[in-house]
Amino acid sequence: MAVVFNALLLLVLCGNTASGDQPVPTKPPGALNYELPIAEYETQDTFDAGIVGPLYQMVNIFLNVVQPNDFPLDMIRKIIQTKSDLSVHSKEPENIVLALKIAYYEIGVLVCAILGLLFIILMPLVGYFFCMCRCGNKCGGEMHQRQKHNQVCRRQCFAMSLLVICLLMSLGIMYGFVANHQIRTRIKKTQTLAESNYRDFQIFLNETPKQIDYILAQYTNTKNKAFSDLDGIGSLLGGKIKDQLKPKVVPVLGEIKTMATVIKQTKDALQNMSSSLKSLHDGSAQLNTNLTAARENIESSLNSGDCASEPASKICDSIRPELSDLKSNHDPLQLPSVDRELNTVNDIDKTDLESLVKMGYTSLDEIPDKVRNQTEVVISDVKKTLDSISSVIKNVSQSIPIEGVLSEASRYLNDSNSYFHKELPKLEEYDSYWWLAGLIVCFLLTLIVTFFYLGLFCGVYGYDKHATPTRRGCISNTGGIFLMAGVGFSFLFCWILMILVVLTFVVGTNVEKLLCEPYANKKLLQVLDTPYLLREEWQFYLSGLLFNNPNINLTFEQVYRDCKRGRGVYATFQLDNVYNISENFDINKHTGNIINELENLNVNIGSFELLDKAGRKSLEDFAHSGIDAIDYSLYLKEAEKPPTKVDLLTFASSLEAKANQLPEGNLKQALKTDAKNIKAIHQQQVLPLQQSLNTLKRSVSTLTHTSDKLLEKVNKTLGSLDSAQHFVNSNISSIVIGETKTFGKTIIGYFEHYLQWVLYAITEKMTSCKPVATAMDSAVNGILCGYVADPLNLFWFGIGKATALLLPAVIIAVKLAKYYRRMESEDIYDDVETVPMKNLENGSNGYHKDHLYGVHNPVMTSPSRY
Question: How far apart are the first and last CA of the chain?
Answer without folding.
Answer: 85
